[in-house]
Amino acid sequence: MSAVVMDGKALAAKIKEQVRLRVEQMERKPGMAMVLVGENSAAQVYETGKQRDCRQCGIYYETYRLPEDVPQKELLDVIGFLNEREGIDGILIQFPLPGHLDDRAVQMAIRPDKDVDCVHPSNVGDLTLGVDCFWPCTPAGVMRLLAEYGVDPAFKNCTMVGRSNIVGKPQAMLLLRHDCTVTVCHTKTPDLAAECRRADILISAAGHVGLISADMVKEGAVVIDVAVNRDTEGRLCGDVDYKTVAQKAAYITPVPGGVGPVTRAVLMENTLTAALRRGKE
């Protein structure tokens, strides 16, 4: 068998077109601001993508670039300024921040109603409690892909490889909301292969090239590769040995072109939602 490739680019285009059509009807357009600290090349690429997405959706966009050694107070002042800007509905901070900055203080500084990637503790708490809130963009993108391809997590076993605050933990919470039985694995898991083989839905966000091999995958499983790595030849790849696993899985996401585009599209959707909740029409 050969897996159905879950086309994130096609789904992202669909989501962004829905956002664009809704924004087109609004007199006061949504606005998003991204704050970048330092000169991380990957972050710069990510930021360029955000500009393009916003332009396609009709969302106003600003970037605030701060030096690597920016003092904590200066960063918090920028966030405070954006909190009060009427034209800005969504604030996105590029994490991780340099070591001298306090991530938690920065997360706490973002107004929860402008926290479009769900990093403020109040939104994270609402996510855990099952209260309506912004969903973190990457885990939300995974859920959208599952829904797009008719994969219902209910009554299924999912193995989540990775326990980060950005993907692993919130992904587990969203799957639990959908009546999935979730096992979260990490670097201290004694037998990762055995846990993976139990999974009807296998999601990997560990950041290790070739971590998930075909012998770790259950026949007919759904395999979602969230990681973005570079192999020894500098090519983009995920955690999954794509060629061999694709011969065993029922569905699989490519890297690139899988979860990544949907993540970015969900951010556009969250920014639109933030604007509507703040009374823009």
Description:
This protein folds into two domains: 28-113, Rossmann fold, CATH 3.40.50.10860; 136-259, 3-Layer(aba) Sandwich (Rossmann fold), CATH 3.40.50.720. The N and C termini lie far apart (49 Å). 42% of the residues are buried. Helices cover 41% and strands 16% of the residues. The model has no long low-confidence stretch (mean pLDDT 96). With 281 residues, it is α/β, with parallel strands linked by helices.
- Look at the structure and name the CATH superfamily of the largest domain: NAD(P)-binding Rossmann-like Domain
Shape: globular
Oligomer: single chain
CATH topology of the largest domain: Rossmann fold
Low-confidence stretches: none
Number of strands: 11
Going by helix content, strand content and strand pairing, the class is alpha/beta
How many helices? 10
Largest β sheet strand count, sense and barrel closure: 6 strands, parallel
CATH class of the largest domain: Alpha Beta
Strand line-up across the major sheet: 1-11-8-7-5-6
Order of helical and strand elements? EHEHEHEHHHEHEHEEEEHEH
Q: DSSP strand (E) fraction?
A: 15-25%
Domain tally: 2
Rg over CA atoms, rounded to whole Å, is 19 Å
| Helix share, percent | 40-55%
For the record, the CATH architecture of the largest domain stands as: 3-Layer(aba) Sandwich
Which key terms come to mind for this protein?
single chain; 281 residues; alpha/beta; Rossmann fold; 2 domains; 6-stranded parallel beta sheet; 3-stranded parallel beta sheet; 10 helices; 41% helix; 16% strand; globular
